[in-house]
Amino acid sequence: MCVNKLTRESIRTVATELARRDPVLASVLDQHGPPPLWKRPATLSTLVRIILEQQVSLASAKATFDRLVVACEGEVTEGSLVNLGQSQLADLGFTRQKARYTFTLAQDVAEGRFNVSSLARKSDDQVRTEITARLGMGHWTADVFLMMALLRPDLLPTGDLALVKGLQELDETTYPTSQSLIQRAMIWRPYRSVATRMVWQSYLARRGRRLL
């Protein structure tokens, strides 16, 4: 089986394969079924939303993002973001840092230093290099974009708290370093993006929540 881009159908197939390899994921699949695709558009708007989600709850980030969409009259583009400026972004609920990151990102796109639409044609490593070169955007931001917007199959966002906490709960142990998490996830390769979705699925279900 070779999967280059995730679909609902391939996620179901891969989840079954992962359950065969890993008893912990087998229990998740038995209890919850295959995970959702959790797809977002591969756009500047999605990158801005991921910036908002850095180190805050998804609900809080979504509330701020929804206000942004209204302020941009329904379409978050580099032009609308530059026109708003950092001050108005802050008025919508962006922290000072995130307002700066978002405004600088919009400028990079507007002035041709960064092309979001070109990312789909690049390798995982190339996408990660492009995104992490932007102000305030690290590996977690790149990994989430690769997973959810470009639907790449083998990402492990080691900086994601829901992944770390969710897997610790499932395994009833701790993963104190990124390397320990990477080692644990070796059995999931080359479909760590699907395994991560399964861990998220369990994490959210335990808390009576869903991914927004």
TrEMBL record:
The organism's place on the tree of life at top rank: Bacteria
Catalytic activity reported: Hydrolysis of alkylated DNA, releasing 3-methyladenine, 3-methylguanine, 7-methylguanine and 7-methyladenine
BP GO annotations: base-excision repair, AP site formation; DNA alkylation repair
Keyword flag DNA repair: yes
GO cellular component, one term: cytoplasm
Positions of the HhH-GPD domain: 52-204
Enzyme Commission identifier(s): 3.2.2.21
A Pfam family it matches: HhH-GPD
InterPro entries assigned: Alkylbase_DNA_Glycosylase/TA, DNA_glycosylase, HhH-GPD_domain
Keywords, in A-Z order: DNA damage, DNA repair, Glycosidase, Hydrolase
One term of GO molecular function: DNA-3-methyladenine glycosylase activity
SUPFAM superfamilies associated with the record: DNA-glycosylase (SSF48150)
Designated name of the protein: DNA-3-methyladenine glycosylase II
Organism: Rubripirellula reticaptiva
